[in-house]
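Quick note —
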Amino acid sequence: MPAEPAFWSLDSLRTGLAMVGVLAAVALGVAVWALLRDHNSRPAIVRSGPPPAQLAALTRQVQTLSVEVRSLRASTRAAAKDAAGAQRGVSELKTSARKTSARFAGTASTQQVSHLQTEVNKLSSQVAQLSSNQQSQTTTQTTTSTTSGG
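Predicted structure written out below.
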């Protein structure tokens, strides 16, 4: 009876090593292919939002509107100060006219004081009208700036 060949004979060991080598070469090839494929077919970065030129234009527009708003605020404050000063002046003139009128009651200059009183009243109404016009213009300018910026 011949002796049974060993399960791990030299021939089977060579065959096994050859199969492992082939398997390693295939795995290495697949890995290289995957790396090259991933590197070459990587999708471009997709940006969401406006392009840089449009973003720059919007930034300029916001800055322009900001300057306009600051300017309108400053002019509104100046107009309010002017109107308040004018109203104080008118009030002082009215007071002065009343005092003068009381002082010269019954004399020939009463007509002149009465005329001055009428003029002061006219000035008072003109100041009030200018003040309301300024307020309506400021409101209109603010509304126009807001709607044109939108």
